[in-house]
Amino acid sequence: MLNHYSYQAALAASESIHWRVEDIIGGEKRLDFTRPFMPESLAHTEPLAFLSTEEKRILNQIRGNAYLCIFGLVEEFILPFVLDHARTQLHGDDYRVRALLKFAGEEAKHIQLFKRFRMEFEDGFGTLCHVIGPPETIAAAILAHDPLGVAITTLHIEWMVQRHYLDSIKNDQDLDPQFKSLLKHHWVEEVQHAKLDTLMVEALAANRSEEQIMSGVEEYLEIGGFLDNGLQQQVEFDLNSFQQASGRRLTESEKEEFRRVQLRANRWTYLGTGMTHERVLETLESLTPKARQRVESVSPAFC
Ligand SMILES: [Fe+2]
Ligand SMILES: [Fe+2]
User: Fold this and answer.
1) Ligand 2 centroid vs 251 CA: distance in angstroms?
2) Of the chain's two ends, which shows fewer C-beta atoms within 10 Å, N or C?
3) What is the average pLDDT score of the chain?
């Protein structure tokens, strides 16, 4: 084991954080639709040279809405997964039970936060933007996989959130302060999730042969392929939402360019940033070096 994470320390850190959904959004706390919501390193609107500054901002906000909705979506499988994992470990370590239940409770809060955000967005943006789903169907498809594959997927998502916030969002002064505050409050609780999920992956891999571990890694990659199909669908939704919101009809060649740039942006946002995260790779390597090598052989397609 490479890390020094513990259930007790994660619980203590989590218990020092206090915010409610109502503190983050609603009432006076309104989104500012004159500002971008997403950092350019994730939104990738600049390469679309045929869009005006205002059109790039509209697309950026569509991506911001999809970002929170897709997080809401994946957290709908993380919540039952963590509960199921906790259910099998109710005895022996009281800190473990409490830390895992706190983890699940925070994800339930985040799901509610993202739903609340979506209402605010739809209210202020003026165009209905479709997002892949429904969450329960996607959750059921993911949860049908080997628990180790699901736990690695969760690990990927938790570290991905860390990377997005620290590398791209924290120091971006152009973003809407309200949207940024929401991402910050989410991130601060996700810090503990990344550590707890590392412990969950280790617990699920313990007593497995290398072959059984690698079969869990293959299931993680299958889940990645499933999510990638969803992202291709999301790019089509975003293209339609963009045309509707901006009133601009793109030519066929502009649409092709939009799809190419935005699929790459979505793949990097949701797949590449997690698959290449050093903490994810370290955890995989600690299970077996083959696990790291396998993921590294696939990740360039998503970067
Ligand atoms: Fe979350
Ligand atoms: Fe989380």
Assistant:
1) 40
2) N
3) 96
Q: Which ligand has an atom closest to residue 192 CA?
A: 2
Report CA(56)–ligand 1 centroid distance (Å). 27
Please tell me the number of the ligand nearest to residue 111's CA: 1
* Predicted local distance difference test score (pLDDT) of residue 158: 96
Angle (nearest 5°) at CA 124 between 227 and 133: 20
Residue 90 CA to ligand 2 center (angstroms) comes to: 21
Output the pTM of the full model: 0.97
Q: Which-ligand-closest: CA of 78?
A: 2
Q: How far is the CA of 116 from the centre of ligand 1 (A)?
A: 14
pLDDT in tens, 10-22: 999 999 999 999 9
Length of the chain equals 303
- Find residue 29's DSSP bridge partners: 26
Would you state the pLDDT for residue 125?
Answer: 97
Distance CA(126)–CA(250), nearest Å, equals 20
Ligand nearest to the CA of 158: 2
> Residue 2 pLDDT more than 80?
no
- List Cβ neighbours of 200 (8 Å cut-off, separation of 6 or more): 82, 85, 100, 151, 154, 155
List CB contacts of 53: < 8 A, sequence separation 6 or more: none
Expressed in angstroms and rounded, the spacing between residue 205 Cα and the centre of ligand 1 is 23
- Nearest partner of 160 among 171, 168, 149, judged by Cα: 168
Q: Give residue 204 CA to ligand 2 midpoint distance, Å.
A: 18
Burial class of residue 252 (count of CB atoms within 10 Å of its CB; 0-12, 13-18, 19+): exposed
Contact 37, 64 (CB under 8 A): yes
- Comparing 89 with 238, the larger pLDDT belongs to 238
Position 89, amino acid: Q
